[in-house]
Every structure is written in structure tokens, then in C-alpha cells.
Write a structure and sequence with these properties.
The protein contains two helices and five strands; from the N terminus they run H-H-E-E-E-E-E. It is of the alpha+beta class and 177 residues long. Strands 1, 2, 3, 4 and 5 form a five-stranded mixed β-sheet that branches.
């Protein structure tokens, strides 16, 4: 065999003229697809991080409101009936000057009681106010036979890590003489 015939026998099946660089195009398309998947994954991760931060902020506000609510309940449970005024956070039920904290819009809360403790992570200490609920007796019930204990509605407002995160909770407590 001659040298020329040996070269023909070991020749590559594709000649240089028929090669068009398709491997480069395929690898660039695959790289583009991987980049799109990575960007979508990052966007999902960022959204989940924001959602968990908002949940944490709301939980801070809820726990602050619960602390103020328990403080108000402890005030009632001391056994002495609090004086009902509208200057120290104690109101008659549905008094016109009491703070309005439900339904989105809030009125000024200068007459609410501020929680005295220290809470970490909140932008402002929670506040609460107490309303005296008068119990109506059925007609003809003698008051010397049955005098129901007074009831109080406590409404507390807690703040999270920002002023926009607000949680309002309410409970009704019966004072036991």
C-alpha cells in the first residue's frame, strides 16, 4: 500500500467543507436555556424571601398586640373596678371619643394606654383601651337578687417592624368581684 492509500483509509468521514459549526450553536442555545431557568429561580427565591419577611413582621405585630391585650386583661382582673373616663384609656361602651382602630382607618390614640414593657423589633409599643359593657337585666329582675358582674371589652393594637404593619385584637373579660 502506498502512502496515499493509507491516508484515504484513515480519513475522517466528514470533510472540512461539510462541517458547519452546529456544536457551537447547540451549546449557545443550551447556555441560554440554563440562564433563563436560573433567572426564574432567583425571582422565585426573592419573592419567597419577601413573603417570609412580611410574615415575620406581621407576627411581631400580632405578638405585640397580644401582650397589650393581656396587660389590659390583667388590669381588669386585679379585682378593683377601674374608673371609667375617656382620658386614661377607659371608656363607656361605644363612647364617641374612643379610638377607632378597626376597618383600616385609625383615629388618634392619645387616650389609649401604652404597653409599659419593652418589646424588641417593634417600631412602636402597642396600645390598648378598655370599654365598660353594661349588662342589661331582664325586665322585672330585682337587683338585690342578681347583680351580674361587669364586663369589659379590651381592644389592643400592635405594630411590627414598620408603621404599616398593624394588628388589632379584641377580647371580652368579665370582672369577678
Amino acid at each position: 500500500m502506498t502512502e496515499r492509500s493509507l491516508l484515504k483509509a484513515h480519513r475522517l468521514p466528514l470533510s472540512k467543507e461539510r462541517q458547519r459549526g452546529s456544536a457551537l450553536i447547540v451549546s449557545l442555545i443550551m447556555l441560554l436555556l440554563i440562564t433563563l431557568v436560573a433567572v426564574a429561580g432567583m425571582q422565585t427565591t426573592i419573592m419567597q424571601e419577601r413573603m417570609s419577611a412580611n410574615l415575620y413582621d406581621r407576627e411581631l405585630a400580632f405578638q405585640a398586640a397580644e401582650a397589650a391585650l393581656r396587660e389590659g386583661e390583667a388590669l381588669i382582673m386585679t379585682g378593683s373596678e377601674p374608673v371609667i373616663t375617656n382620658s386614661n384609656g377607659l371608656y363607656v361602651l361605644d363612647h364617641a371619643n374612643r379610638p377607632q382602630w378597626g376597618g383600616g382607618a385609625s383615629t388618634a390614640s392619645a387616650a389609649a394606654i401604652t404597653y409599659p414593657g419593652t418589646l424588641r423589633g417593634v417600631v412602636q409599643n402597642p396600645q390598648y383601651f378598655v370599654e365598660h359593657i353594661t349588662t342589661l337585666l331582664p325586665p322585672g329582675t330585682p337587683t338585690d337578687v342578681f347583680v351580674p358582674p361587669p364586663y369589659y371589652r379590651i381592644t389592643a393594637r400592635g405594630f411590627g417592624g414598620s408603621q404599616e404593619t398593624v394588628v388589632v385584637v379584641t377580647s371580652v373579660v368579665r370582672a369577678i368581684p
